[in-house]
Amino acid sequence: MTEPENNAELRKPRFSSFAKTGKIHYNTAMNLPRRPRRLRSTPQLRALVRETALSADDFILPLFVSEKVKGRAPVASMPGVFQLDEIELLVEAGAAHASGVRAVLLFGIPATKDEHASGACAEDGVVQRAVRRLKRELPQLIVMTDVCLCEYMSHGHCGVTEFREGVAHVHNDESVQIIVATAVSHARAGADVVAPSDMMDGRIGAIRAGLDEAGFHDTIIMSYAAKFASAFYGPFRDAAESAPSAGDRRSYQMDASNAREALREVELDIAEGADIVLVKPGLPYLDLVWRIKEQFGLPTAVYNVSGEYSMLIAAASKGWLDERACVMEMMTAFKRAGADLIITYWARQCVEWLKA
Ligand code: PBG
């Protein structure tokens, strides 16, 4: 920006009279050629110069379908979020779709778990059945599936795990085999988008090859490319019943300190065939949304995770924050940072609030 020519003029102490007399002269106008407030003076002007606009097309609603509940079961740490049986899933997805939400992201909670996550890739698994049902009843709704093994593993890790002296060792290549089978089974059930969230190496390339081999050339891969080992997933693990029984996820999810590593992960996933890349969590990682979008320009998604949801809901329930205003500000921040898609538990409310 160029310096104003009358800069010297600007620096003149025009209010020196206050210091001398102790009186404010209200008719003393500052000589300001640049007054940014001009463009903020009415709602119409603010709308005219607004840089970031949210749209109903931006939102993806995560939903939990469970083989263990009848009807719906509230998730204690996420008020307003439920585990759903197949019928209630249809109700919830149908209502969201009717409101204008274009896509849902499914998580499954199976009745039984084992050490091979056999439920994850079962043809009649909880997600596979739910996808078939949704695509039959709501063919226009985009159905995305989380592809991960943690909900299906008895130990809760995202891959095949061996425990040596109580320490969990998650095997990469064996895990990828099951992950590919899971993604293909979701595609076979009719999923439009598969979203691997496990953070194993090489899984995007393997999934792309597996899908293509099975004839699913058009199934989209949304990669959780930059997924961090985060304490903000706490409430989700209640919702999905997927907390690891021992150890943590730090040997596969990324360290919160690392941004360049996130860029390398994204680069690899794009090279392997990712169509959409995702950053997770959202709010504490907006720098990465920005850098990834700038550097790669691919459709970029952000996951406004469970902890981000629960902390605002908790504060709002105490009357400390205005839920709606804070949510819309958060969503705008995601968009401003460069996100094209926003995965959020508030998806339906956002779409409704945008109409109001
Ligand atoms: C499964 C998965 C997790 C989330 C999405 N997929 C949890 C985890 O990695 O522990 C978190 C979503 C949220 O917190 O809302 N691997």
Précis, in short:
The protein is of the alpha/beta class and 356 residues long.
Structural commentary:
- The chain has 13 helices and twelve strands.
- With 356 residues, it is an alpha/beta fold.
- The chain has one domain (56-355): TIM Barrel, CATH 3.20.20.70.
- The chain is globular, with a radius of gyration of 24 Å.
- The model has no long low-confidence stretch (mean pLDDT 93).
- Residues 146, 148, 150, 158, 197, 233, 236-237, 249, 305-306 line the site of ligand PBG.
Question: How helix-rich are the residues, as a percent range?
Answer: 25-40%
Number of strands: 12
Mean pLDDT: 93
The CATH architecture designation is Alpha-Beta Barrel
| Contiguous uncertain segments of 5+ residues | none
Q: What percent of residues are in strands?
A: 15-25%
Structural class: alpha/beta
Oligomer state equals single chain
What does the overall shape look like? globular
SSE topology string: HHHEEEHEHEEEHEHEHHEHEHHEH
Helical run tally: 13
For the biggest sheet, the summary is:
8 strands, parallel, barrel
Classified in CATH, the superfamily is Aldolase class I
CATH topology: TIM Barrel
Walk across the major sheet and give the strand order.
1-4-5-8-9-10-11-12
**Termini gap:** 39 Å
* Count of the separate structural domains: 1
| CATH level 1 class label | Alpha Beta
Bound ions, cofactors and other small molecules, one mention each: ligand PBG
Taking all Cα atoms into account, the compactness measure Rg is 24 Å
